[in-house]
Amino acid sequence: MRILCTNDDGIHATGLAVLEKIARTFSDDVWVIAPENEQSGASRALTLSAPIRVRKVDEKRFAVTGTPTDCVLLGIEHLMDSAPDLVLSGVNRGQNIAEDVTFSGTIAGAMQGMQLGIPAIALSQARGFRGEEAKIPWETAETFGPGVVGQLLKHGWAKDVLMNINFPDVLPQDVKEVEVTTQGRRDHHIVYADKRTDPRGGTYYWLGFRSTLSNPPQGADIRAIYDGRISVTPLHIDLTHMETVHKFKGVLGGAPPKVD
């Protein structure tokens, strides 16, 4: 099996090293193609207005001056000598649950693999639930990643679906179970823009996340992570809301309306 590993935290990220260890439990043919610098929050961005440079770090290991989507695209089309059998993206430094999945470069890396017809899995290690001072429990992803990925590969999934795995912010011995979940939604916004002043008196802003919890229902990815379970969520690229499609088909379909 040939595996392409990417991420959005960059080529030097701890989570990428964890991902490579997980990949090597399945194959020795592991390629690492990751952003030169952190691309968190890049989502599905493509680099269209600047050249993309590639630096060969080692055998089957490349750093790319682009986004996770760029990395997977270049990897499959130019850097690898043949297409991978699996794309793994992560292990992200922090959870990618609920509406996070629409910001995530980690999810985007897996999504690009899926778009190119290759089975793809995004992996994230949750953090921040035990206090800001607590170390990220990378050993949780490293301990359970091979087993969860192995079960997914054994049973397979639809070609237009990517799998999103989130490991809870607990030590391995405290993980309760694995739960197949749906994408959740927070009941309040946690992203904010902090207004600051630079040494010359100019104003700038820094985006961040508030560490406040929601009250998600059982079965949602966010609830699973809150409760110490590994969350596995099948995602797909179609964002269509069918209930609204059906609602408006009866009132807006047909000849375009004109205002008298």
Automatic annotation (TrEMBL):
Residues given in the record as a divalent metal cation binding sites: D8, D9, S40, N92
Primary enzyme class: hydrolase
Keyword Metal-binding in annotation: yes
Catalytic activity: a ribonucleoside 5'-phosphate + H2O = a ribonucleoside + phosphate
Domain Survival protein SurE-like phosphatase/nucleotidase: 3-188
Gene3D superfamilies: Survival protein SurE-like phosphatase/nucleotidase (3.40.1210.10)
HAMAP family: SurE
Listed name of the protein: 5'-nucleotidase SurE
Organism: Candidatus Viadribacter manganicus
